[in-house]
Write a structure and sequence with these properties.
The structure is a single chain. By secondary structure, this protein is of the alpha/beta class. The protein has 2 domains: about 200 residues, Rossmann fold (3-Layer(aba) Sandwich), CATH 3.40.50.2020; about 240 residues, TIM Barrel, CATH 3.20.20.70. About 40% of the residues lie in helices and about 20% in strands. It has 16 helices and 16 strands. Helix 11 runs parallel beside helix 12. The radius of gyration is 26 Å and the shape is elongated. The protein starts with a helix and ends with a helix. The structure holds the ligand O=c1ccn([C@@H]2O[C@H](COP(=O)(O)O)[C@@H](O)[C@H]2O)c(=O)[nH]1. Ligand LLZGTKA7 binds next to strand 16 and helix 15. Keywords: Decarboxylase, Glycosyltransferase, Lyase, Multifunctional enzyme, Pyrimidine biosynthesis, Transferase. GO terms for molecular function: orotate phosphoribosyltransferase activity; orotidine-5'-phosphate decarboxylase activity.
Length: about 475
């Protein structure tokens, strides 16, 4: 079946293309239904699909080190191309395992390898983008994807927005022309389908299950936290006070499923680079957790604007959240909020109301009252507090509590600890910020799971009372 026209007719005959009236998952009534899953029952057709895809690859001179098929239909196609044309294959898991290595990408690869994504059909491009995000989170470059069939519903532009070039074997227009020519459908049916496609163009959609939200970038941070807590069953913020960003990246891939937030101090990192921080950002999108830079801004407005947006760290470009002292007055919050007006993702901050360290001067009633007032006044940008107690009955403000340990009561330098139960039940914490209790433990992944479970159990018990 070397001829593409023969292949299209065959696909129609095995009911990979159906015409009529079909209710799609979205509830929309469609005049066409395409299901390429059937090809696995027809080895000649399956191979022919793979051969035609490979021809396009040869013609387009795309270079790549490996191939990753989007589960599931594209997997056998990717396998054939990999075996026939001697290319290594990668597989992206749909979910990470809860045991063993917790790897999201299976197969051998090196940092900066280029991987080509293979998909059977593209509509919006969301599955390709989900796969690309997972590969990129591992430091693999993705610049090209190939699909057998493009429904021409704006998938190519959506992918372009994510810096992915789309190669395709067939478009819906070509398929309709071929089927009319071969008298499988009438011109009228073809016109109906074309009209449907014209009226149903897609934009990048939010994906299901909280793993990747392409539009997570447009979901307000408070709402993102609520969704993450319910979907991932975690109120744990891992505080990764490590001095190597490479180590944080590795750790975040291992514990990504267990946390709702990752807190870092970028100014303690020996190996900070914008490239690496972008990798961490991609991981936070893949595993759906928020990224908090614990910068503790505390200067006049003009200076904090520069600290937030310029210099080595350019914090505003990657941190979903930052921490801020209101010591200099509310101008600090105005200044920070103003600096992120032009950033097209939501940004927010947590005001430091009470600190966990012994003798903290913040923990004075008038000071805390001032912080609460400022939080209420700038509630679009200020999503809540760093605190040691519940400061307001307004549940829209998120209370994040550091100084958590199951086994210690403090360190030698003034840090004071309470247990997860004391923090949530006794002090009204929404998020537990846990650092050395996890990073100093022998088995960080296991300890992280323990804190996740303990924190979420206490939260659920209280919710159900
Ligand atoms: O009041 C505060 C405010 C911030 N922190 C930060 O949280 C972590 C705690 O680390 P542990 O290892 O769990 O002690 C750390 O990054 C602090 O800078 C805090 O402890 N108390």
């Amino acid at each position: 079946m070397n001829n593409l026209e023969d292949l299209v007719v065959k696909l129609f005959d095995i009911e990979a293309f159906k015409f009529g009236s079909f209710k799609l998952k979205s509830g929309i009534q469609s005049p066409i239904y395409i299901d390429l899953r059937v090809i696995i029952s027809y080895p000649d057709i399956l191979r022919s699909v793979a051969v035609h895809m490979n021809e396009i690859l040869q013609r387009s001179n795309v270079t790549y080190d490996s191939i990753c098929g989007v589960p599931y239909t594209a997997l056998p196609i990717a396998s054939i191309i990999c075996v026939d044309y001697k290319k290594p294959m990668l597989i992206r898991r749909k979910e990470t395992k809860n045991y063993g290595t917790k790897k999201l990408i299976e197969g051998k690869f090196n940092q900066n390898d280029r991987c080509l994504i293979i998909e059977d059909i593209v509509t919006s491009g969301s599955s390709v983008i989900e796969t690309a995000d997972s590969l990129r989170a591992e430091g693999i470059q993705v610049t090209d994807a190939i699909v057998f069939f493009d429904r021409q519903q704006n998938g190519d532009n959506n992918l372009k927005e994510k810096n992915i070039r789309l190669l395709r074997v067939l478009t819906i227009t070509q398929v309709l022309e071929c089927l009319v020519k071969n008298k499988r459908i009438t011109q009228e049916v073809s016109n109906d389908v074309q009209e449907f496609i014209r009226q149903n163009q897609t934009e990048l959609p939010a994906l299901k299950n909280g793993i990747i939200e392409m539009k997570s970038s447009s979901i307000p941070i408070r709402q993102r936290f609520q969704t993450i807590r319910e979907e991932k069953k975690t109120n744990l913020c891992l505080c990764a006070d490590l001095t190597s960003l490479d180590e944080i990246i590795e750790l975040s891939k291992q514990v990504g499923p267990n946390i709702c937030m990752l807190k870092i101090h970028c100014d303690i990192l020996n190996d900070f680079s914008m490239e690496k921080i972008q990798q961490l950002k991609n991981i936070s999108r893949t595993f759906n957790f928020l990224l908090l830079e614990d910068r503790k801004f505390a200067d006049i407005g003009n200076t904090v604007q520069l600290q937030y947006t310029k210099g080595l760290f350019q914090i505003a470009t990657w941190a979903d959240l930052v921490t801020v002292h209101v010591l200099p007055g509310e101008g600090i919050v105005q200044a920070l909020e103003q600096s992120v007006q032009s950033i097209d993702e939501p940004r927010g901050c947590l005001l430091i109301a009470q600190m966990s360290s012994k003798g903290a001067l913040t923990n004075n009633e008038d000071y805390v009252k001032g912080v609460i007032k400022c939080t209420e006044k700038y509630s679009d940008y200020v999503i809540g507090f760093i605190s040691q107690s519940r400061l307001t009955t307004d549940n829209k403000f998120i209370h994040c509590t550091p100084g958590i340990h199951l086994n210690n009561t403090g360190d030698q330098l003034g840090q004071q600890y309470v247990t997860p139960r004391q923090a949530i039940d006794g002090r009204g914490a929404d998020i537990l910020i846990v650092g050395r209790a996890i990073t100093d433990s022998i088995n960080r992944i296991k300890t992280c799971e323990e804190y996740q479970q303990e924190g979420y159990n206490v939260y659920e018990q209280l919710r159900n009372i």
